[in-house]
Amino acid sequence: MKRSRNLSSWIRRATAPAAIAAALVAGGVARGQDPLPPDPVIPEAAVAELLAPEVGVEPVGLIDPAVGMMNLALDGWFAGSELRAAETILRAPRKFGAWTVDMGDAGLHIGSLSAHADVGNVVDLNGTRSGSIYQTLNLIPGTPYRIRFLMSGNWRTNPLKPRSLSVLVGLQKFTFTMTKPANWAPNQMGWEEKVIDFIPQKAVVGLRFSSESPAMADGAAICQVSVLTKRPQPGPLDSIPVPLPADLADYVVDRDAAVVLGKALFWDAQVGSDGRTACASCHWNAGADIRPVNDLHPGAPGSAFGHQTSAGPALAAAAVQNFRGANQLLSSEDFPFHRVQNPTEPASVDGNPVTRDTMEVAGSEGVLNRRYTRHNPGSAWDEGEDTPDAVAQVDGVAVRQATGRNAPTSVNAIFFDRTFWDGRARRYFNGVNPLGELDPTARVLQSNPDGTMSPVKILIDNASLASQASGPPNSSVEMAWSGRSFAELGRKLLGLRPLAQQQVAEDDSVLGLYRDSCGRGLNQDTAGYAALIRRAFQPKWWNGQKLTADGYTHMEANFSLYWGLAIMMYESTLVSNDAPYDRYAKGDQTALSAAAKEGLRIFMNEGRCINCHHGPEFAGATVSSIRGVLSEPDGHGVTLMPMAIGIAFYDEGFYNIGVRPTPEDIGVGATVPGLGPLAYSRREQLGENIDPLNVVTPDRRVAVDGAFKTPTLRNVELTGPYMHNGGMKSLTEVVQFYTRGADFRKTNIQNLDPDVHGISQLQGNPESIAAVVEFLKHLTDERVRLQKAPFDHPELVLVNGHSTTTMPRATDNLVVLSATGAQGGKPLQTFEQVLENGLDLFPISNPRPVAPAAPTPDPVAASPAAVEPAAVEPAAAAPVAPEPAVIGPVEPVVAEPAAAVAPAAP
């Protein structure tokens, strides 16, 4: 994880304003060629106050921005002294910051020699002659530690001589030598990482860096010194408990029934206003979406709530102007969306130019832009009116919309503290929408003894997936005509048989017992939606006998509550804890190949991947790291850490890594209109006590704009395209991105994560990049790839773009994901394979529309006893057809044989 709770303990001790301000210096000051705003002037007394440890309290460093762990060496960036000159010769005995020159002299360089990524300052161990610097460390005897520092040399003089230094740790001595790198310059030092692993035998240990290049000026140079507790490799995923609400029993009386209900709702295409869009439509391939047609969005959405920066209107206009158009077929040549000539080296105008860039987003195909008017009893198709859309159209013909962000996987999503890329699905479920505690108006209905219902406010903790699930069903882009409510959706589904037009495998691990005799959907008597709700939920949440003021039954009015909790319960079973890495973490050394083991070593060390993708979940913003088994119990997700420049508070697990310019999408930095900011750290500034360990006053710096949740890397080979904008097609492109460093460092510098300054050891090293990719593939659970239980599923008809785009309406191009049972089916494809070979799914040609069966309305669900329900005759069960089912809406869009779709323009 990016922080240690030792840092928060340090914050509690250093509560004086001057001490907090001094942390800005201790965190390092970036000095580069970018025209950045000046750093704040910090009083020299504040520096001294911070560096002077309290009596009886062990001094602690700040988090090392290069590795994301507590740095036990004070002032490892050599930025804690009062000195400001570009170069200062320090002669023994001389103290600077937390260091002491005890022999010869050394040179402190502030900008005259550039530290790696311009973070901190540089010490030349030969000022005018060889010198030595030291400090005393307070460690725990017998504990493994790692010393990490960067080494280069000052070759302004004696350019042909190598530079050598020694490191003395207690009584152990280590020597390093380096020759002058090609193209060395004071602002291009060619830093090399050096690592020393040691186990101290005493609690107080000296750390000394000494020049081994005597009788000369300008010697070995060092920067970014860290002493770290050696980080262990993540354990197996089954070592982390699945987080569920402590008060779940107040709502759910039968967890198994809730899982059945949740799986049915998740996969039921009748949920969509078009009768063919399910939650699973965007989460069908290892929980993600790899459809290649009509998923492009112009980009630069600003935030989930539109643009909230001054650059917004211009960006939105530019995105639409440069948009290639809807219904594009993506190809390998379209990726990555931001391309540099040499993908492993930082971009530069003269040596490594950017050869392609687009603001477009590879999202997921949704629904037509229509306004909801009413549902049709007994039909999956909702009535609506077309809404003109300047983007979702081809030559004036309306086509399906695309989302403004890529769809994250639903597998292992249960482990997150907040969900969606921007964390707007809160950890507290309010029973109504994703905004949790942010929405003071959210209410659900609880029955009274006399049959009436009273509105009550609920906040269910550890229920972010319930919050998340409540968003897409009525999203006017993802699943519904605009304006549809959950009560309307409830009225619709309570009048339909679950999964009525979708094959269900006889051995489906959850739904098989309730499969209808016709082979499609669930049996209405034993597993109709109303019956499942009554089995799963406490009666007080559904047994009211009156209508609401709007004319809805108790069950219809509370449908969002059942929806959220049931889908959360289903998704809590989607835990992929049997990857090769899990077996390796349990002691099976043969579970990882030699290349994967080398990739793991890079992942843990010079790659710094573990800093964000940490823990057995290989993710950030997880419950376990914020307030669970991997954190202190009083932590709640606000962290103080050095950023790419300076130090700031941020939301743990949410990082700006420079994939796109910050103003294009500010992520967790957004503000919910009328309800305030999404970011925990900004809400702390407003006085909320979200994290008891951290008090973020209004004058403190917060770095959350353009930051997104760190996704899990489990099954990542199957969940492309990658990043929040879907702009990378393969794991190789992802590792190349981190190898060269942030693509928009200058634009994003005020919020940029410190870990994305590139991986020098991987630059020009395709073998090491391939090793990291190999390791990532060993995070795949073969049950996920083969669609075995618990990852089996009903049949799903998917819309993969449009085969024709002529009046009066574009024709959906339909393909079928076959139902699988507990034993699974054929292997899932990767996104890269789809781009090369197309979707390996069954195409539908001239399908026979099948009208969904309309069951007799349930008297409790559809209407209170006092209200006479309208009689609806159930349709006869359709025979099992040999071809896949196609949901037949009231206004059917008849699919024709798939036509060639024009490829996207390069």
Describe this structure in words.
Helices cover 18% and strands 17% of the residues. 58% of the residues are buried. It starts with a helix and ends in a 44-residue tail after the last helix. With 906 residues, it is an alpha+beta fold. Mean pLDDT is 87; it is low at 1-61 and 846-906. Helix 2 crosses helix 3 (44-51), helix 4 (255-267) packs across helix 11 and helix 13 packs across helix 18. The strands form twelve sheets. A six-stranded antiparallel β-sheet has the order 3-6-7-14-9-12, with no helix packed on it. A six-stranded antiparallel β-sheet has the order 4-5-8-13-10-11, with no helix packed on it. It folds into three domains: 61-229, Sandwich (Jelly Rolls); 248-290 and 366-575 and 787-862, Cytochrome c-like domain (Cytochrome Bc1 Complex, Chain D, domain 2), CATH 1.10.760; 590-765, Orthogonal Bundle (Cytochrome Bc1 Complex, Chain D, domain 2), CATH 1.10.760. The chain is elongated, with a radius of gyration of 30 Å.
Keywords:
Cytochrome Bc1 Complex, Chain D, domain 2, 3 domains, 21 helices, disordered C terminus, 906 residues, disordered N terminus, 33 strands, 6-stranded antiparallel sheet, Jelly Rolls, alpha+beta
Blueprint of the fold:
Elements: H1 5-13, H2 17-26, H3 44-51, E1 63-64, E2 69-70, E3 87-91, E4 94-96, E5 99-103, E6 105-109, E7 122-124, E8 132-138, E9 145-153, E10 163-169, E11 172-178, E12 192-198, E13 204-211, E14 220-229, H4 255-267, E15 296-297, H5 312-321, E16 338-340, E17 354-357, E18 361-362, E19 370-375, E20 382-386, E21 393-394, E22 397-398, E23 444-447, E24 453-456, H6 464-469, H7 486-494, H8 524-527, H9 529-536, H10 554-557, H11 559-571, H12 580-585, H13 594-604, H14 623-627, E25 638-642, E26 647-651, E27 654-655, E28 671-672, E29 676-677, H15 680-685, E30 708-709, H16 731-740, H17 745-748, H18 766-777, H19 782-785, E31 796-804, E32 811-817, H20 831-837, E33 842-843, H21 859-862
Antiparallel strand pairs: 1-2, 3-6, 4-5, 5-8, 6-7, 7-14, 8-13, 9-12, 9-14, 10-11, 10-13, 15-18, 16-17, 19-20, 21-22, 23-24, 25-26, 27-30, 28-29, 31-32, 32-33
Helix pairs in contact: 2-3, 4-9, 4-11, 13-18, 16-18
